[in-house]
Amino acid sequence: MLQRRSRRPLVAEMVQRDGNHPSILFWDNGNEGGWQTALDGDFARWDIQQRPVLHPWDVHGGINTAHYRDYGATVEMAAGGFLGVRRDGRPMAEPRPVIYMPTEFLHALYDGGGGAGLEDYWEVMRRSPVAGGGFLWAWVDEGIRRPDTGRVDVQGNQAPDGILGPYREKEGSYFAVKDIWCPVVVRERDLPDDFDGALSVENRYAFTDLAQCRFTWQLRRMPAPDEEGAATLAEGIAPALAVAPGASGRLVLGLPADWRAADVLVLRADDPRGRELWTWTWPLRGLSRFAALSAAAAAGAASVVAEETADTLRATAGDLVVDFAKRTGRLVRVQRGAQAFSLTDGPRLAVGTAVLADLSWRAEGSDLVVLARYTGQLQSVEWRVRANGWVDCDFAYTASQPSAYLGVCFDYPEGLVRSKRWVGEGPYRVWQNRRRGVSLGAWGNDYNDTITGYSGWVYPEFKGCFAGVRWLRLATTEGPITVVIGTEGLDLQVLTPSFPPEAEQRAAVTRLPQVGLAFLHVIPAVGEKFTPAEAHGPQSQLVPLRDGYRGRVSFRFGP
To answer: Distance between CA 404 and CA 400 in Å, rounded?
Structure first.
């Protein structure tokens, strides 16, 4: 009784102090089940707006605030069905109907949660007749810099749970959330073949007409690997479009007649105060030129020479020497002039078996073609060592069962890597269930060993999977290695990201193959602290198998 009486002045002081803040929509009395529930009535005594009082994690006052329900339970709750259980395991008993509004969901521990799986959950919630929204946990990693070691300490997995770092460094999920929760929605994920310069937009504002927003477009040319920075070819402002809250309309951009020759179409939406809501990007025909980089003619280049030893097949193209293992058909050695390059042991399957059945080679014009045929899931690898110094690798494989990742891998020592530049989606890495929040452009960053939300604190992370990559230039102590991806739908894995060692983090962790570079048709989804990826929605499930998988990548070693 003394404890309850002593807290009554605190409720009065809080409500009188904060009651006029526009961000105060509800009052939380306690946390994760609530406590001091005898004080519920005190909020109404001091709040002239009579805002509801919540018991987070519980059902109270007609609002179900259940925490961290998996996707199936979320679907049921959003339909007005199953209420779930209290923290102590007792069933929630509240007269229906109730509003479903989780005061915590998708815990953003490490690089999971937050934006991973959010699109599936949000589509269920925004279409629900009873859902009132939800609150992601949390905004910022609550790390502190220790005076004894100087490192940021997040107490294992107790505090690295924000979409921002301790110094407000933006993580990938920050941008995924910004993208998914943008109040302006552009329906075209891909431009149709008959695109006429108009986009379908939806207004998800509650009170703002889109006529108050500003839409600007650009046509950009992306740089080649030996160039710096993207170029703006044309830009303009789309005519104001009146679309009421909840309605849709067609935004006519007013593009020039030659817009198809550009590489990327960019659309930016600003709110009435001039702040960016989101910037969308779409690939155009011009990007296809990168796939043909390796086929450029080299004036005066001599034909590639093949030499055979007991263990290797050697291809020599000018000052480039490439060795393939006769036992496996894999790349085992590359040298350009006096400089050796350590990209080796590939392509090997990330998942599956491969036994070399036959290795043959032939001259085609001035090039040397090396064909390896296999038994097992790997079917074939065809190498083309070009007289111009490029090396193409075409591969085909099958898979016997769905897997978290599928593709081919190469080794490269992490300690030799210095930086990377690329044209593709970026600047952040992606997971299968977090492909939102990135944009098509020209990107670059120096090597870092950041473990998201745990150590390093340099963002974007260097290591991981990157989508839509047309080319990558990896700067190493051995010299540059340029990679061109000639097949749509291949994601690029650069090195292998690490996760923290804490045992309780299992649901927020996913695994990738140990590689220097990998080219993947399937990449893993990631879970959140309490829910593994497989308990999330459709985007988090294992990708159904295809009849077969094919890819082409091209390499150039040195400048």
So the answer is: 13
